[in-house]
Write a structure and sequence with these properties.
6-stranded mixed beta sheet, 6 strands, globular, 36% helix, alpha+beta, Nuclear Transport Factor 2, Chain: A, 4 helices, single chain
Length: 147
């Protein structure tokens, strides 16, 4: 079962990467926005994140699903301290006014006072709302490879 899920993720990543239109200005805009988001998360810039996150956004972590308010509270309080997100691979695909970005990362964070390092594929969904990109979903899928 686990191998099937991992295989499906690898296949999905290959399809998305092959159809992403690598290097377009629109791709780069989303990649830059994602990198900025990671920096804001590590610097706990909650006000900047609050502007980026749509009010209806959902956040899926290994331990559960959160709303925008819950995610911002976790970052503000330091319950999760994002230290570094080493981005290893990125792909972007557009469906209408929606951008789907996949990042394969090595995330270093402090969770409950303990530093942890995990390999993830992070799915970020951005929606263009009147010329402004808003984050609608951020989902972490832990990979079975060692960090």
């Amino acid at each position: 079962m686990t191998r099937t899920i991992l295989g499906a993720l690898v296949a999905l990543a290959a399809v998305v990467t092959s159809g992403a239109g690598q290097g377009s200005a629109r791709d780069q805009e989303i990649v830059t926005l994602s990198k900025t988001k990671w920096r804001w998360m590590s610097e706990r810039k909650v006000d900047s994140l609050a502007t980026l996150f749509d009010d209806a956004a959902v956040f899926v972590h290994m331990g559960g699903t959160m709303s925008k308010t819950q995610e911002l509270d976790v970052i503000r309080s330091g319950m999760i301290q994002y230290k570094t997100a080493e981005i290893q691979e990125t792909s972007v695909r557009f469906i209408g006014s929606t951008a789907i970005l996949l990042n394969r990362i090595r995330l270093t964070a402090v969770v409950g006072g303990n530093e942890v390092i995990n390999p993830f594929v992070v799915t970020e969904v951005y929606v263009d709302q009147n010329g402004t990109w808003k984050l609608g979903s951020l989902s972490f899928t832990r990979l079975l490879t060692p960090p």
